[in-house]
Automatic annotation (TrEMBL):
Source species of the chain: Falsiroseomonas frigidaquae
Keywords: Cell inner membrane, Cell membrane, Membrane, Transmembrane, Transmembrane helix, Transport
Residue span, Tripartite ATP-independent periplasmic transporters DctQ component domain: 29-156
Purpose: Part of the tripartite ATP-independent periplasmic (TRAP) transport system.
Family: Belongs to the TRAP transporter small permease family.
Membrane topology, record value: Multi-pass membrane protein
Pfam families on file: DctQ
Positions of transmembrane segments: 88-112, 132-154
Record protein name field: TRAP transporter small permease protein
Subcellular location: Cell inner membrane
Quaternary structure annotation from Swiss-Prot or TrEMBL: The complex comprises the extracytoplasmic solute receptor protein and the two transmembrane proteins.
KW tRNA processing (keyword) present: no
Length: 164
């Protein structure tokens, strides 16, 4: 598979993750709005915070693969702005590998945590929503993020980008 084809496939995956993230954010807004409106009449939605915190946690993780593919992370280049393009590419690749490894470890731990939540049948206090699905969704998002970071690391070594 060519570099361009792999970039295209990972970008489509990242866009899909971001679209799901947007839907989760809209759902969180809808639950919050409904709870506030019902609260005005003394009948807030029971467990609304449980729903919103799970939705937001997964939504944040699902945005990160697209952020990685677009190179949209915050970069502080005060000390590195005078480096030659090849030096910047190597430094960029090293940092992306670090991100890929750290995020892969977090995905692994989330998967184990999700399995433990499923195995122990842990759920939320008010709505008895199972915790495992939030862990599993976050682990999938972090796995996609880790793959994207590893690809961008390899790509930056093969084809250095010019800083903006």
């Amino acid at each position: 598979m060519s570099l361009a084809a792999l970039r295209g496939a990972l970008t489509r995956l990242a866009v899909g993750c971001a679209l799901v993230s947007g839907m989760l954010l809209l759902a969180a807004v809808a639950v919050t709005t409904a709870s506030v409106l019902r609260g005005a009449f003394g009948r807030p939605i029971l467990g609304d915070s449980e729903i919103v915190e799970m939705l937001l946690g997964v939504a944040v993780v699902l945005c990160m693969p697209l952020c990685e593919m677009k190179g949209a992370h915050v970069v502080v280049d005060f000390f590195t702005q005078k480096l030659p393009p090849r030096g910047l590419a190597v430094l960029d690749a090293v940092m992306r590998v670090v991100v890929a490894v750290v995020v892969a470890v977090l995905a692994w731990r989330l998967a184990i945590g999700g399995y433990n939540m499923w195995d122990r049948e842990r759920d939320t206090m008010f709505l008895q929503l199972p915790f495992w699905w939030g862990y599993a969704a976050a682990a999938l998002g972090m796995t996609a993020w880790s793959l994207c970071a590893a690809f961008v690391a390899a790509e930056s070594l093969i084809r250095p980008r010019h800083p903006a």
